[in-house]
Each structure stands twice: as C-alpha cells, then as structure tokens.
Fold each of these.
Amino acid sequence: MSFATADYRVTLGGKPILKGLAVEATQGRTLALLGANGAGKSTFMKGLCGLTKAQGSATIDGIDLLSATPVVRAQLIGYVAQDLAHLDVRLSTYELLLLAQQGSSRGWATGKDAQRKASEMLELLGLQRFAERQPGELSGGERQMISLALALVRSPRLLLLDEPTSALDLANQLQILEAVSTYTRQQNIVTLAIFHDMNLASRYADDTLMLHHGHVHCSGPTRTTLTPENLAQVYGVDCRALSVDEGTYTAIYPVSVLESMRGQAITTA
Ligand SMILES: Nc1ncnc2c1ncn2[C@@H]1O[C@H](COP(=O)(O)OP(=O)(O)OP(=O)(O)O)[C@@H](O)[C@H]1O
Ligand SMILES: [Mg+2]
C-alpha cells in the first residue's frame, strides 16, 4: 500500500473523534472518504497535514507523516481545505502558483520552471482567465478551483481534497473531477477526497471508505462498497442504486430518512 494508517486516533476537546483507524489507499487511485456531518472526515485530513494533533501512524511511501517535520509534510501533501478563507490575500493567482512551488517536492524550482508549471496547471484546470485575479475577489467556486491548482502545482505524493466540488456548478464538477482522476492515474499519486454527493463519489472514486462513530464502517472498491445497505447504516437513509447508460454509471438516489433516524440529532463522532 502506498498510503496507510494504523491505529490513527484524534481527540478534540477531550472527546475521541477518530478511534483507531486503519485506512489504506493505492497509488494511481482515488479514495472517497464518506460519512455524516461531524463524522471526522475533515479531522482525518487535518491530522495528516499537522493542523490537528493525531496519534498512531500514517505513512506515504513508507514515510511516517505524523513524526515528519512540517517541511516534509508540506512537500508530500497537497491539501484543498473545506474552508478557503486563507486564500483571501493580496496576490494574484499566478503569483500564488509561483510561491507555492518554493521548496516543493521537486526541490527549489527555478524561475522559468516555476512559470512553466504555473501556466501548465492553469491550463490543465481551464483557469487561465484567473491568472491575474486575486482569489479573494473571486466567487466561491472559482476560489475552490484555484485552491486545487495550488495543491497540484507542488507535485504532491498525497492529495487531500475536502469536498473539492461543494461550490462548483455541474460542468465544473465533471471537468475538475475528471482532471483530478486523470492526474492521479498519470502521476501515480494517492488521492483522498471527501464527498457528500454520492453520485460524484460513485463516478470518480475507484475506492470508497465510510467513517461512522469514529471507526471505519466499510472500505473497498466503490462498486461493492457504495451500496444501499452501507448508506442506510451510515447515513440512516433509504437509497436506491440505479444503473445509468446500460451500467456505465451507478446513480445513487436517496428516497427517505429511515424511520429509526427521524427526529434524532444526527451526531456520529
Ligand atoms: N476544535 C475542536 N474542538 C472540539 N471538537 C471539534 C473541534 N473541531 C471539530 N470538532 C468536532 O469533531 C467532530 C468531527 O468534525 P469534522 O470537521 O472532522 O467533521 P466532518 O466529518 O468533516 O463533517 P462535515 O461533513 O460537516 O464537514 C465534530 O463533532 C466536531 O464538532
Ligand atoms: Mg468536514
């Protein structure tokens, strides 16, 4: 396994949020990280980045992220956070793309290399028109796409995407996730992506893992893991899995909240 955690634990405010997770992910593949609001998905990623204290182990290519220095973690990880307020700075997208490459995993980029790579990344994601704009002046969706460009331009080994399409329109959801899955395959990196849209997880995630009550409820290939049974157990929702275009895609249609869940405060951590 290229990426693996063992007995991965996070406690916040005296409360155990993640209670000893074994998560595995393979290079060249995208793993969807699913679970209800408050399940600990963002916390899982923040622990890997060093933004939250985590215990146990989490390795990428045999390097333990939890004992690595912040510099090494930053070289290995590309992170698109759920909250993008940190992008509100007085620099253009292009300047940020150059800055992001300083001391990246490929070493210190020369000016020319960094400029070429910044331009390539804007082109890959179709964001050339935002090069001279400041992200703080852009819409939520535009800012989300620029955050992805900033994560990728550093050539990460591990790409962490926290609801990367939550602010994107239909066309951009498809284009951005297509670009991410192609990049993941071609560069042979490990991508973990948090989704609340089951149809996007179904279409773009090779593998799926569901968090529930601080534990891994299930994990494996998406087609055998993203099932109505697991969705009922983890979200308390009655769902149908529908074949689209003669089985090319599986759509997930949520029908109703299960009777046992009605009126309950949904807390899962
Ligand atoms: N700083 C903190 N102190 C105490 N508890 C916290 C802190 N940050 C998060 N939590 C709690 O940890 C739990 C997990 O939060 P987290 O943000 O990881 O959830 P999530 O799965 O990403 O949810 P969502 O889908 O809503 O983004 C929640 O119950 C939250 O209230
Ligand atoms: Mg979250």
Amino acid sequence: MKAGIFSAGKLGGIFVLAFILAGCRHPATSQPAPDATLKRMDAESAGGRRRNSGRRRKKSQQGSRRGRGGGATPGGGATLDGQVTEDALDEETLCGIGRGRSCDIQVAVKRGLFETGLEPAFPENLDCLGIDETWAIDYTYKRDREQYHGGIDMPTAYGTPIIAAADGTVVAKYEGRRTMRGREIIIRHSPEDTGLPVWTYTQYAHFDEMPKREVGERVRMGEVLGPTGNSGRQGRRERRPAIHFAVWFSADPRYLPRSRKIIPVKGFWMDPIALYRGGTPFDSNSMKALPEGEKRVSVSVMTKDGKVTPPGAKVVWPYYCERK
Ligand SMILES: [Zn+2]
C-alpha cells in the first residue's frame, strides 16, 4: 500500500508533507509506519478521540478483563505458531477486525467489510444449504450503533453438522456466553492448506454444543466441527438456528489471540464467497468491481461420503451437500 502512495508522484509528496506536518504537531502520537489514510482518519476524528499507543494498551487491558471464557491459548501458557502480542498490531487492524466499541466502523469498511454482491452457485446435481442474506449487509437496525454483518448465515435445522471448510489448525474456541456469536471455533489455514497465497481464518459460530477439537489441533477439510445451534446472546429478535461463517486473510502469518476473537496481523475481511473462487483476487474491492456476470461464484462442496465437487478442490462449503 505504501508503495502505491509513494509512487503517486506529486500526490505522494503531499501525503509525505502532511505526514511530516502532522508528526511535528503531535510528536507524542508517533506510530510505526502509519499510512496516509490512517493519518487522514486520525485528523478527521474529534480531538478527544485521538488514539495513542498508551491508550491502546489501556483499552486492551479493559478488553481482557471484560472477556471471559476465552480459549485461544492452549493449556500451560504455551504459544502456538504465529501467535503474537498486541504490540505487533497496528491500530487500524485492531479496530478494523476487532471492531471494539471505541472503534470507528469506517475502519472495518476500509479493511474490506462491505458488500461485494457475490452470490454462491452450487453444483446442479446436489442439494446444498444456501445463505439467507449476502455478506456485510447493514445490521445497524439490529444493533445500537452502525454495524455491518461480519459474516454470512446459513439457517438450517438444529443439530445439522457444520464442517471445516479446509485443512487447518484450531486457533480459538469460545464459549461465548456474553457474545452474540455464542459457541464458536476459528481455524487458521496456511497457503498450502487452501492453495491461496495468503493465510486465511475461518470462523464458525452458534454451535448447539461446544466443538470437541481443541486449540492447537489440526482439522481436515470436511471434518465435522459440531452441531448447528442458536447459541449466543439474542439481538432484538430471536435468531433462528444457523451457522455464522466468516473469513479473514492476511499475507502475514501472525495473529493476535484475544479473549473473544483473534486478529490477524495486517488482516482484512474476506467475503466468504470469495474464498471459493479458488484463486486471486479475493479482496473486497476487487470483488465489488467484478462484472455482474462473474459475481455468481461456483462453490466447491463435499457430500457426506467425503466426495468433493469439483474433485481436487481445497476448500468446501461448511455444510455437506446431498445428492438429489
Ligand atoms: Zn451472522
């Protein structure tokens, strides 16, 4: 991103100048390599909301106190591959993926949380469970603040098995008694696991029972994670049983485990349907810009007998499909 800014010639010069000036006026708010847009967001936020690293630390302590029942760290305090502490994260990713109460929702939008118009298309000879609404729709009416749905929901009967979308390692498990998402598991997938040139994270929520797999364990694509349910705090209307399925990605393999969520270093939101395109691009800007005809994505799926359609796919829909 920075290369893009600086290669923009005169415009880049202006940004650099603005950055230097901003730095001179606020020497106490220096942050590692902030980009021009983050700088602009800082400038636009009200004086009292300017963030610095000291405040960020305090906020994270509050976050840890509030969130209980976390399971992102394996027993004995051991650290999993890729785990980092909050120091490794920039403010934009923390807010954009973490979406804490004090975060501007536009930061999440900047990190890819906006509607792209993608729709799943399933193999014609199979019956698959679809989504009820497309990704990142406006949820403000369900919450007490501006918010976008950070996943897709697939409503179906209680107990329907939710399966792992790809090979990967469990990096978090949450009881979620106080969250909207309820019982939840997050799996981290290496580029080898998915065939994509980035690290991806898949999140499955609202389980009726806690998934059995533990943090640190490997799972296989298509493995049953647990039964569909409706766990988690209810919003203004009672939720129907469904999976909430979400995806993040980053070129950086590292991530921050938190008491209620994990945050990939330099992470972005991915429209979960983009995961099934089987290659690049998959970022939200590129997805939104696709011609209408390419917005229907052929989704790779698995049937209960373990057969994958199309053969060789490394990512499958998180519910089994059935033969018609
Ligand atoms: Zn949802």
Amino acid sequence: MRIFITGGAGCLGSNLIEHWIPAGHEIFVFDNFATGKREVLPQVAGLTVVEGSVVDGVLVDRLMGDFKPDIVVHSAASYKDPSDWLEDAATNVTGTINVARAAEAHGAKRLINFQTALCYGRPSAVPIPVDAPTAPFTSYGISKTAGEQFLRMAQIPVVSLRLANVTGPRLAIGPIPTFYKRLKAGQKCFCSDTVRDFLDMEDFLALMDQLLGETVPAGVYNVSTGEGHSIKEIFDIVADHLRLSNIEQPPIVPPGADDVPAVVLDASFTNATLGWHAEHNFEQTIRRQLNWYDQHGVTDIYSHLAAQPTSR
Ligand SMILES: NC(=O)c1ccc[n+]([C@@H]2O[C@H](COP(=O)([O-])OP(=O)(O)OC[C@H]3O[C@@H](n4cnc5c(N)ncnc54)[C@H](O)[C@@H]3O)[C@@H](O)[C@H]2O)c1
C-alpha cells in the first residue's frame, strides 16, 4: 500500500516505518523534526522523507497529490512547549485540517489519526469509556481535541485512535525514560501520585496492521490494555531492573496543577468491534522498554506538562 505518514520521524511514526517497510509498503514521511529526528529514518527503497510543516496546506496538498496515498496516518503533533498555544493550535488544528482536506482531495481510502487520552480531561472514573465526554484543559489536549472534532466532518473514512501510553523503541516521554536516566545517573526521583495505562508497541503495531484492511469501521476507538498502574510501580520496576535494591524510596507527590490523577482507557468497544486485544501485560511492557534503553540509551525527554517535568 501507499502510506503517507505525517510526523513519521517521531516515536510512533518511526516504529510504523520499521514495521511496514519490510512488509513492502511504499511510505512517504512528512515531518518538521520539531520532536522527531531525521536520523531515525532508514535510507531504504520505498521510503521518501520530506521536511516541512503540516501547517503549510499548499505543500501538504501538493505532496499528497503527487504521492496519491491509499492510507494517510496523521501522527504529527505539537506538544513540547505547553505555553506555546499558537504552535499547538497551528499544528494540531490547522495542520489536521490541511491533512484531512488533502487526503479527501487525493482519494485516500482512510485517514488514521492518533489522539491523546488527555481529550477526556479529568475523568470522573476510570477506565474511561470511548463515549465519555471530552473535557481537555491543556494546550495540547484542547488543540488535539479540536483537530479530532474537525476530522468528524471529513468526507473520507477516519479512524481516530485514543491511545494509552505506547511504550517501545525511542520512547522519549513519561516516567520510564525519566526514571531510567535519573536512577542510572545516581539522581533522586519523585513519583507523582498518578495512575496511567501502558500499551506495548507490538500491540499497537498489530492494531495498525489491522487498520490497513478494507473492512474496519470508521470511528473513534480507545486503544489500551484497560489496566491502570501507579507511577511508583514503574519506579519499582526500573529500580529492580537497574539492581538498585536498597535505593531510597522516592517521595510520592500530589499531581501537578496541569496533571490528571488517573487516566486509564476502557478499550472494550475496540475489543468488541475490531477483535483486537493487547497481548503484553504491564510488567512485560515496562521490562521490554528498559531492555531497549540498555541497548540504545535514552535521548531527549519531552513533556506536555508545565509542572514537575522530572516526575514523568
Ligand atoms: N506515543 C504515545 O503514547 C501517544 C499517546 C497518545 C497520543 N499520541 C499521539 O500520537 C502521535 C505521535 O506521537 P509520538 O509519541 O510519536 O510523538 P513524537 O513527538 O515522537 O512524534 C510527533 C512527530 O510530529 C512531528 N511534528 C510536530 N509538528 C509538526 C508539524 N507542524 N508538521 C510536521 N510534523 C510535525 C515531530 O517532529 C515528530 O516527529 C501524536 O499525534 C500524539 O498526539 C501518542
């Protein structure tokens, strides 16, 4: 298939490329390298990489018109400066509109969008069903939610995946790389008193393979194991992995002002509709990630939160 991936140099995009190029798909990556890195993309036949921003609607339209994708995967997103509302709105709202319009104009069969669980804001209970109301309250969450709302008006089938924390090669956000890097450097940590769900990259890739098929119904899907785990549980696994058995216990601090105490997605509609289930459990997923850091190290760490960046 011909697959156009915005933000293809990012964590999810680059894993998709590593997975799909050997399967024989033709892939076009469009990325401004705001958080992605060109060097993670292999120089191989079947992969074209162009630098630019999804905010440039004329360029998006021309590139998609030349490539004529069967599938558009919209993975580009802005989040790295929580105070830069204009960049978040430009990339996550205007950029999403540009991608949808170009996909419609050039006959893509499906647009697959990635959405953050922060669209649900501070849910009253977890796990959060996919039909729970959206109530985002951060620049990233608000702009991503507006982008997803625009996609509901697109004239082509759109599948929007509301994702748990996908954990796999090149993960550079959240508590796992943070604890790994700090504990390895002998630095102290603290744990925010929060609960999150984690999804192994292999489970995410298995779902993405399924979405290339003809029969997947358009719609919005939660993608998660449905299991919540505390940040302290991650700290304990990282400490155990690094064989720091006598380490000082980290303080558990209340969630920051822009944080959410518990985010766990209920994927039962996805399980029932698509027949997809996560195969890896929490501990396997975290340990697989730590083994990857042992081999490749941790690079930059980004956060979409303004407060307490070292806790996640
Ligand atoms: N990784 C997760 O667990 C997770 C969870 C929820 C939602 N998501 C969503 O999945 C998508 C991918 O996330 P990721 O973890 O790979 O993040 P990432 O930062 O690694 O990838 C995003 C990519 O988008 C690129 N980009 C940013 N602004 C752009 C612009 N204006 N034009 C073109 N490219 C631009 C970045 O350079 C980067 O390569 C995002 O839409 C994100 O909101 C990811």
Amino acid sequence: MDLELGGKVAVVTGASKGIGLAVAERLAREGARVVAGSRTETPGLAALRDRHGVEFVAADLATADGPERLVRAAVERHGRIDALVNNVGGAVPRSGFLDVDDQGWQRAFDLTFFSAVRATRAALAHLLAHGDAAVVNISSVNARLPFPGVVEYSAAKAALSNLTKALSEEFAPRGVRVNAVAPGPVRTPFWTDPGGFAEAVATEAGGTAQQALDEEVPRQMGISTGRVTEPEEVADLVAFLVSRRAGNISGAEFVIDGGQVKTT
Ligand SMILES: NC(=O)c1ccc[n+]([C@@H]2O[C@H](COP(=O)([O-])OP(=O)(O)OC[C@H]3O[C@@H](n4cnc5c(N)ncnc54)[C@H](OP(=O)(O)O)[C@@H]3O)[C@@H](O)[C@H]2O)c1
C-alpha cells in the first residue's frame, strides 16, 4: 500500500528510542522528511540521520517552551509541517495514589499531556495551512485501565485521549485529522532498560526481565495474543493514520494491545 508520504514533513516527539524512534524510521522509510525531538540523540537516531536524513532537535519537551522550539526548528528547516506525532510520555512506578505528591502529578502532566498541548498549539497554524494534515497522539490503554501503580500517568493519558476528540471536533472540518493510538505493553526501553518496568515485574515474579516481558506481563495483564506489542507494529499503525489512506478517519482511538482491554 503506497502511503503517499513522500516529501511530507513530520514532527515526532520523544523520538530517540522506543515507539518514537520506530515511528521516525517508518515515516522516513516512506519518504517523509522527519524532524525528531528528544533530549538526547541516541545511536539509533544518529543511524536514522545517516540513512534517511532524519533531523534531530534537542529539546526538553516537558518544559513550557521545549515543544514550541521543536516545532519552530521544523518550520525553519522545511517551511511546513504536514504531520505531528505526539509520542513523548512516560511513567515512574508508584506504590499507589498516596505515593504521588503535587510535583509528581505536575511532572506527569507536563511530560505526557502538556507536551502534546504545547506542540499541537505551536504546530496548528502550519498544519492548517495546506488543508491536509494529521496529528496522532500516543495515548495508552491506561487511559481506560487506570492502574494504581501509574495513577498520575493514567490520568494524563485519559486527558490526552479526551483532547484528541476535542481537537478533531474543532480542526477536522478545516483539514487537520486528529487521532489517538492506545498501546498496551510495548517492548521499548521503558520496559527493557535497567531499572525499567520489566525488571520490577521480574523482582516480584522471579526470573529475568526478558522472561517477565515475554511471559509474565502477557499472563498477568490478560493479553489474549500472549505477547507484548513490538514498537514497529505501533509505528505501522501511526504511519497509516498519518497518511491519506486514513483520509476519513478522525477523532478515533485505536487500541493496539493484543486483546488486553476486555470491554467493547
Ligand atoms: N512502552 C509501552 O509499553 C507503552 C504503552 C502504552 C503507551 N506508551 C506510550 O508511548 C510513548 C513512547 O513510549 P516508549 O515506551 O517508547 O518510551 P521510552 O522507550 O521510554 O522512550 C521515551 C522517549 O521520549 C524521550 N523523552 C523522555 N522524556 C523527555 C523529555 N523530557 N523531553 C524530550 N524527550 C523526552 C526519550 O528520549 P530522551 O531520554 O533522549 O529525552 C525517548 O526518546 C509514551 O507516550 C508512552 O507513554 C508506551
């Protein structure tokens, strides 16, 4: 399927590893000019620069001006933006609600919700300029399955899913489609890094971090397919939503969780 992304300019937030890196790679392979924002340029992102011309912009996207600086850099380099993927976000493991103080709540919302608010606000004039653009917000199944261990993250993702619909209502009539992708567990550094969530599960369940991610997480979380999602699978869905092939899809949220969420 030709996604017709050749020459399109796409901004991807949190793109130095994990899902963001996979999205940057997928869009670049389709011929898009990708501007990737994160705090550091990883070897993976440097390889995309060399192979596909993906451009890196260093920015702390949890700050008030970080997202706007990323968007401005993309416009300065390419003069337009056709797609924005609000991917940056993250959680820290908690023992529960009483473990999160005001700073913790603020940090979660800055990273996971306000980063998308600020990037979208900065990009909208450019997205609207050509009447054919797309925003994809990376939400989470935690938007509808709020786990106590990631209580503030879950609330921030619920806000992001809600914002997706509001933005679609306002801007789809003017040519900017807005959708969300809500993954269940995805094999990224968020899980696999030392000190990541897979290690935490392994500490409780026994075995290695890899066994935890391959066996324990799918079992504990009731993932019907019996495995976690790969970042490239999320990237395929995002690339489709960004493309004209999804030209009449807006205000929708696509769960990619191997059947973890049991409700319709
Ligand atoms: N993995 C999962 O199981 C899963 C499931 C559902 C939803 N999600 C969502 O998918 C998105 C990506 O998750 P992931 O698992 O790929 O995460 P990850 O592996 O932890 O990667 C996070 C990315 O965001 C960047 N980042 C983190 N803090 C940043 C900041 N303050 N400013 C700029 N960039 C920052 C990181 O780069 P630097 O450190 O270089 O800045 C990195 O590129 C997140 O929104 C997450 O909530 C993930």
